[in-house]
Every structure is written in structure tokens, then in C-alpha cells.
Amino acid sequence: MSNNSLIEVVAGVLYNQQGEFLLSSRPIGKPYAGYWEFAGGKVETGESRLAALQREFAEELGIEITAATPWLTKIHHYEHAHVHLHFYRITANQWHGQLTAREQQSWCWQQPGNLTVAPILPANAPILAALAIPTSMSGNLNTGFHSATPQQPALQILPYQPGIATTTVVYAPASQLQQLTKQHPTANIWAICHNHEQWLQAQTAAAIIWPVSSNEDIQLLLNLLQQHPSGVPVMALLEKSSQPTAQPDWITLGVHGIIQEQ
Ligand SMILES: Nc1nc2c([nH]c(=O)n2[C@H]2C[C@H](O)[C@@H](COP(=O)(O)OP(=O)(O)OP(=O)(O)O)O2)c(=O)[nH]1
């Protein structure tokens, strides 16, 4: 199937001041009516993605979005349409107005990692899992990483080793991902990447870890985020030795979160 037959869709993960995000139910009359989704919809011809997001949030929820950060992208084939989904994050200070259900839909605030509504749109399950990944972590590649602030969902990830419990979240070099996934199909594996080839391999991982120790690492990551937006969340691992290097504004460039090396 050519890319031309893909329908471009934008969807926004809208946050409130408490760090909760918004889900809405799809109105009656649409495919998957009653399923929960992020507000959004199809990009119209000649419209930018941000403009589409602003229009959809105004039409569906009566609020104004002033900015949004590109986050994950995903292609999904439904029976009714083949969609290219572009997910954005919208922080509490990037929108204003009174939330109003303008399409007879329901909406509710949800905590990352603790969903209380069902069913959700089939394409959205990995997206909701990604939301439960903290945006701030610390640790090091030898011993593992953990959430850095108490407000974040708690998470610990450990280096992969044979025999480790499959309920543990682990990381391994991207080159080993395929083999490890075959051995442990249900495991939650993050992939460490340093280059373009590994970035593509890692698109089946639960998340990408991108170690940053030089300006070249930064440049390559920024190019990849631009040219091959990721379907899985990307964590920039800021190595101690890289601290004097000027850091870009990672989150607005599409990185999910930061891991500070300790
Ligand atoms: N809005 C939204 N759509 C999603 C999400 N996840 C997902 O797979 N989709 C799919 C469902 C639909 O096939 C497509 C969005 O199309 P839509 O029918 O909601 O778009 P729209 O509001 O522009 O609809 P319409 O004007 O054509 O009635 O993307 C999501 O989180 N939010």
C-alpha cells in the first residue's frame, strides 16, 4: 500500500496541572463509537498538523491550544481506514478555556499508568503504555535506571541478563532486540541505540535509550527525530562526561524524557 492512501491524523495528549491527561469517547455515528481516544482527527488538505489539532480541540472540546510538541507517530490499518497517526503532547500551560463536550462525547482525566476507562482504540494501547514512562529518570548503564522524581510513575529498568524475571523491564543493545524478543515474547525490552540502523531496529522495542556523550550524538538524534519520527518513546541518556556540552531543549524536539547519568 502506498503512503498516498494513508489518512493523516493528529491526536493530542492534553495535560492538566496535576499531570493527568485527557481521554474522550468517540461520538455515536463514527467508526469505533464509544471507544476512548485522544481528541483529534483528520488533517484537512493544505492544513498544518498544529492547525488541525487546534481546529479539532476547538470543535470537539471548546478549548484553545497555543502550542503542542510532536511525540510519537504510528501507522495503523483499520477496516475503515489506513491511518498515519501523529501524537502530540500539550502541557497544562499550552491550552486554555473551559472543557465542553461539543459532540455529545464523554471525557475524563486519567493518570499515566492507571487507566480507568475501556475500551480504548486498538492503535492506542502502546501509546498509553508509553505515557506511563517517566519523563525524568536517573542511573547508569551498568546498574540500571529509575524514576527521578516522586511525582512521576515509579519505574525501574535493569540491564538484560539471562534468567532475569520476564516481569522486569530490561534494556539491551538494539542489535540483540530481535533475538531477545523471540526468546521472551512478553518481555518489556528497551533498546540502546547509537545510529540510524539501530534506530530502525529499535522500533519494535518498548522504548529507545539514546546515550549522549558528544555533539555528534546530539546532532544524529535530532536528525533522526526529524527524518524518521519514532513510534516508540525516546529517552536521551545524558552521560556525566557530556554535561559541559550545550543541551538542546529535548522535549520540544520530540524526545520523551531525559535520563541523567549518575
Ligand atoms: N482522534 C483520534 N483518532 C485516532 C486515535 N487513535 C486512532 O487510531 N485514531 C484513528 C481513528 C480514526 O480512524 C482516525 C481519526 O479519524 P476521525 O474519524 O476521528 O476524524 P475526524 O474527527 O476528522 O472525523 P470526520 O470529520 O471524518 O467525521 O484515527 C486517537 O487517539 N485520536
Automatic annotation (TrEMBL):
What's one Pfam family here?
Answer: NUDIX
Q: Which Gene3D superfamilies is this protein grouped with?
A: Nucleoside Triphosphate Pyrophosphohydrolase
Biological process terms in GO annotation = DNA repair; DNA replication
The Nudix hydrolase domain extends over 5-135
Is the keyword Heme assigned to this protein?
no
Q: EC number(s)?
A: 3.6.1.55
- Name its co-factor(s): Mg(2+)
Entry's SUPFAM superfamilies?
Nudix (SSF55811)
- Which keywords does the record carry? DNA damage, DNA repair, DNA replication, Hydrolase, Magnesium, Metal-binding, Mutator protein
**A GO term, aspect molecular function:** metal ion binding
Give the catalytic activity.
8-oxo-GTP + H2O = 8-oxo-GMP + diphosphate + H(+); 8-oxo-dGTP + H2O = 8-oxo-dGMP + diphosphate + H(+)
**Mind telling me which CDD domains this protein's record contains?**
NUDIX_MutT_NudA_like
Q: Which family does it belong to?
A: Belongs to the Nudix hydrolase family.
Protein name, per record: 8-oxo-dGTP diphosphatase
Protein species of origin = Snodgrassella communis
